[in-house]
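Progress against Task 2.4 (sequence-to-structure conversion) is shown through the following example record, which the project officer requested during the mid-term review.
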Amino acid sequence: MEKAFLRLVAEDIQAKFGKDISDIAIVFNNKRPITYLKKHLVDVFGQAIWSPQFFTIQEFFALSSKKVQATQLTQFFYLFELHNDLLEKEGKEPETLEEFYPIAEIILSDFGQLDYDLVPIDQIYMELFDTTEIDITFQHFTEEQQVFIKQFWKSFSMKGHTAVQQRFLALWKRLPILYKSFKEKLKTENQTNFPTLYRDLAEGRGENQGFINQFKKVIFVGFNALNKAEAGLFKQWQEEDKAIFYFDVDAHYLDDKIQEAGLFLRRNLFQTGLVNALGEAPNIIGNRDIDVNLYQTLGKNSEAKLLHDILLNTGGIDFKNETAAILLADESLLVPLLQSLPQMDINITTGYPLIQSPIYGLFDLWCEVQLYISHQKKEKLPYQLLETFLSHPLTKISKKQKQQIQKESSEKQLYEVSIAEIDVSSSVLPNFFKPIKNSAELIPTMVRMIDDLVQSISLEGTTKVIESNLLIETKKVLNQLHLGFDKLGHLSISFQIGLIKKALAPINSAIEGDQLYGLQIMGLLESRCLNFDHVYVLGANEGILPKTSSAATFLPNNLRKAYGLPVLENQDALSAYLFYRHFQYSNDIHLFYNGIVDENSTGEESRFIKQLNFETNFKFIKRSQQQPLLFPVQPEELVIDKNGDIWDKLYGSYIKDRKALSASAFTTYLMSPLQFFLKYVADIKEPPSISQEFEMNKLGTVIHECMEQLLSPYKGSTDFTPTSELEKALEKVDSTVIKEIGKQYQTELTKLEDLNSLQRIMHKISSEYIKMYLQYDIDQYESFRIVELENDQDYFLDFEINIQGVPEKLRLFGIIDRVDEVISKNGQRKLRIVDYKTGADQVIFGNLDKVFSDNTENKALLQTLFYAYVYEQISGLRGLEPHLYVARRMREDGTLFRNRSGSLVFEDLILEDQKKVFVEFLREKLEELFNPDIPFKHNPDAVVYPSDPYTLFYKYSISEKAEEED
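Structure tokens generated for the chain above:
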């Protein structure tokens, strides 16, 4: 096994310097390798020694200045002010923060890049339209560089610039002035940034140009892509014998000039002339032939799930003697990975992103609430926002208050909630739904929320390190934003929120364990200088490794190439190097990629894998995750036997305890015995919910209640009332419906304007239906007398059935909507029982045998006969004629039940005969219901409506016919 790179570095340091290393500085690109080199130095020296000083490259360069580092947000605000000053001098309107923000980040990034690579600012931003001028100005450039510059300016010829070109050229002309004033502003404020530090040092005007002299020697370890400032300084320090360099390099990609992984190392060693203290590059990759496991998965998240299985099935890793790392080429896989890993010691330094945490979700929710109530000045919120707050784990609202809010909102069907009525006082954020007074209060209010959340987390008694770190970092960023906002005066709430979200997005919190023990999780970039025995790379897809996009810039590609600035190819080269170097050391390599082709995935492994497969002797063992083949096997039908507790519940409730059985329960059994069990035996009810869809059951209730109120003045009179009197009732319909809707939603409503959009629809339909019912009576009858009205208290009837050969009494329950006596226009007198229907019910049926049967074709007829039978038995009256008021069909079909041909109408002798048939049918079906040998099962021929909450239970029901065929 090859020695790890940092082990070689430690051994060479001992050989060169012995024990005298306390005044040596060791510099890395990032912090991660420092711990590992310390460990190797301890192992190599084998005794206690004075430690050298360790730095990241930015920490090291920061030693050259005592100025404060300006934050990214501070630099942004400086740039905004300075840019508007320039616009004012040009006689142009200043830009708003909203307009400038999208380009500010790009400008800052470009300025930084120009500093790092020491590009002459005035030169790159020159206005050049003449080819001859280019030849003269850039005569020291190569011919290729001059071609790139000419290609750039070719598109900006003097002849007719487009509006976009004119805007770009105006900005282009402004940028060198903006650059200089920006640098002056930093100087005035006694601040700096890293690009300025780098450039000042490289160009010999650093605040402390000789800061490197405080160390006997500076050792730079594991550097790869150097900018021009670094390359120049490194070369100078090497020549002054102040610095030495350790490059992690392999001859396989170094000696091959077209191999992208060696691009930067060839520049460092052969062009810049830096010397690798480890000597000649060994050809490790070219001489290895180990197996490499390549996994094609079915989906992005499947990579993490498959890794879980592999970690379990390989028998585990001996972390005392071996090292292992998961490298995330696609860092968005961190959360799926954490959810999929088996229980083991892990250390994560990629950081847990705020944007994927519950904290961000809570802040995002609050911002959305404030956009409604403070920015748009709305008095009501969508209920979904309140429900999200109630369900969020960090709000910690009491269970009692949460249930109270949910119950009230469900009963009132508040899909919009009045802000003034929201009470979340038991939550750790009791003022969450309080509007802020003005836009200046936005960030201070968020900071107070953070303080409350930090306190609530600490009070829990459990360590919430990640949440606390995220909240602290969030507070820092918000405070920086607030300082910048204060200087700019009034900013709209919507823009502040947009900027806050952008500023919070990059925040993350490290989930650190032991860096030297356990499974290490990191991005590819963080794995620089580090070697592991076991390596697992997730996201090894083309398009991800390497990425196919680069950061936004105002420096076009041709100019970037002309000045040697980084282009997409440089990004490819760095990615290739970071990937290839793990093949120099690791003996157990597992690569995972998503094989699904969609808008986010090519479905192909990275081209780096294909290159290694072609160029080297590594044996790539490809495994494809296969979707299991599912054969169409009929799953088991849900059948409930009437035995044990189920029989005890059925028999005990309805026979022993005298629970009443309603007409709707009876027809439910006919349509689906399984639904009857779920609803009336198991008591599985549909959970309360808030819907913005129209509710037919609520509509039916409104109509029944209003009809009772409008007809109740006539109830109990022994005399007949002329139907013309109902004209007075017609005038009261609208106001009666409005009040009843208010009652149903537990809100006081007095006029149409008080109703929301859904309630207005309900009002319109209810009013029209009621008017149709009343108008029908006016048109069809001369006079009427109300006998009974909306009585659900008095009509309970003991009905005898046989259960296992023993006569038993079952209690039937009838709700009587209306019983009246009417005199028609021709003087005919009738005693009627009337039922109102708002759905698709109708009085016409096809075949009577199909009515008196399972899965009845006219449920309304059976229910009305049920009511009539119970009423007649209790009241002693006979000859009751069932009528069905269906608003949509009343004028065409009337209200009497009949068959399609009209040969069978439910009145007079026919009606009396069919009542007897019904009673026998009722007894037969109820005895079947209480037959313990006949289980509850669904009738597969029954019509199942989309709104049926029990649909899932019917999924695998099998018809009797199918069973016989089997």
